[in-house]
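**User:**
Everyone, produce one record:

**Assistant:**
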Amino acid sequence: QVQLVESGGGLVQPGGSLRLSCAASEFNINVYAMGWYRQAPGKQRELVADIGVVLKTTYADSVKGRFTISRDNAKNTVALQMNSLKPEDTAVYYCNRRRLVDAGTASWGQGTQVTVSS
């Protein structure tokens, strides 16, 4: 069964940093564009950053210059380095395959909670 396990979240003060990790199993991420998404309370899930097969990256305007997405195909993992965190970054963060999300057929893992608060 395909699994995506996100980790690395936590409580951090504004201006702080966190590094999220996503471990995939039962499929190889190297043939997929992968994305990090987040969902804040009362809001729809949104794409934060994605990374293509050839390592092209895109970011939501709200996180440009602060977040960096990367992938390690050998370890079958995707990471999201988050710096200069703001309270509005508070959300549950998920990773997934872009293709399946766009097609509406993705299943989601548990996600990892990020809370930015003083």
User: Anything to note?
Assistant: The chain has a mean pLDDT of 96. The longest strand covers residues 18-25. Residues 98-103 form the longest helix (6 residues).
